[in-house]
Amino acid sequence: MHNHENAPHLHEQHFNTPVQEYAPEVKQLVLDYTLQLADTSFILGHRLSEWCGHGPVLEQDMALSNIALDLIGETRSLYQYAAELEGKGRAEDDMAYLRDTVEYKNPLLVEQPNGDFGDTILRQFIFDSFHFFFLKELQNSTDHRLAAIAEKSLKESSYHIKWSSEWVIRLGDGTEESRKRIEKAIDNLWPFSGEFFMMTATEKALLEQGVIPDYSQIKQSWDAHVAKVFEEATLAVPQNVWMQSGGKEGRHTEHLGFVLTELQYLQRTYPGLEW
Amino acid sequence: MNTKEWPLWEVFIRSKQGLDHKHVGSLHAADAEMAVQNARDVYTRRMEGISIWVVESKHIHASNPDDATAFYEPANDKVYRHPTFYEVPAEIKNM
Questions:
Q1: Do A114 and A50 meet the contact criterion of CB atoms below 8 Å apart?
Q2: Pfam families in the record, alphabetically (chain A) (predicted)?
């Protein structure tokens, strides 16, 4: 992952400061959680990068790739921090390329296949609507590094949520075909929208420590934003949908294995290879 | 919209405060909002800009090359139109 375009902006105050003092059990929680956030951005960033060269038009191909790169940039900051927290000499690439499916803690939504453009837009919209409001709150984290990473990523996420929201409106209130596609995407993906707000044991413990925000408040912002965008898109917000979960605890859909197979192929086949 | 092609837009970028918007290229977009966002994604990835204008290409009216003689040549021998007798103050950088 040597991409200069996404090198962290080192002027952010806390990117260079050492890991703050934590009791060992709290430190483990922060580490687990940082990996969970990193995995989430990483897998979604990778999914979006699969669009590179396949976008419906050149301009949207670049929009998708730009968002992918933003997410990979956020991923790098998080994996670097995780490696520091762990303090066992592992680096960001080890975190990304040498962990197995069950160790990945991303919510199930982000590993779902790209499908058609409507599926990709809706997956992005569900994620952005969480990510944006989440980062806003994470800026107030008692963990200085996570707060600094949130502050930097929020600028990018502000654009992502605008982009995906406007596409939901365009597709929903567009042609007969575009509406059919986005409605199909809603049917497919809505069961994966609830997991973001279901708190795992790790998350509950970190909430008590003031490291992460209360998800119930973020859910209110999410609901309000989704309702507003869907109304403008003349789409109905699904009600009483049974929600899938498990990703944040390492229980994944069959798709993640295929994603990691491709992502990790090189490091698994030629361990330690650099170029 | 009857056609399947999105209309063409011309993109103008201001690279920094105090400079003019400059034509950088064109792109396709369904509406003005999308054109601004596409311009952001296509033309400002390497910190090229701080402001974007877009205008649908069909709204640009150009002079006819056949008129070049009548349009431009009469200015050739009117050197007195150049304000060459003024000194530009040092504080004025972009002129």
A1: yes
A2: PaaA_PaaC
Q: What three-state secondary structure class fits B40?
A: helix
- Helix (H) / strand (E) containing B38: helix B32-43
Does residue B52 belong to the interface with chain A, where contact is any CB pair within 8 Å?
no
Which ipTM did the prediction report? 0.72
CA-based Rg of chain B, rounded to a whole angstrom?
19
- In this structure, what are the phi and psi dihedrals at residue A108, rounded to the nearest 5 degrees? -60, -30
Q: Where are the domains of chain B?
A: 8-81
Return residues 5-44 of B near A (CB < 8 Å).
6, 27-30, 33-34, 37-38, 40-42
Predicted local confidence at residue A3, as pLDDT? 43
Confidence tier at A9 by pLDDT (50, 70, 90): very low
Cβ contact A66–B37 (<8 Å): no
CATH architecture of A23-238+248-269: Up-down Bundle (1.20)
Looking at residue B13, its amino acid is I
According to CATH, the superfamily of the domain at B8-81 is Phenylacetic acid degradation B (3.10.20.520)
Give the span between the Cα atoms of A232 and A237, in whole angstroms: 12
Nearest to A80, CA basis, from A96, A57, A67: A96
Identify the CA nearest to B57 among candidates B90, B15, B27.
B27
Q: Is the pTM of this model over 0.90?
A: no
- DSSP output for A47-106: HHHTTTTT-SSHHHHHHHHHHHHHHHHHHHHHHHHHHHHH-SS--HHHHHHS--GGG---
More confident residue, B92 or B31: B31
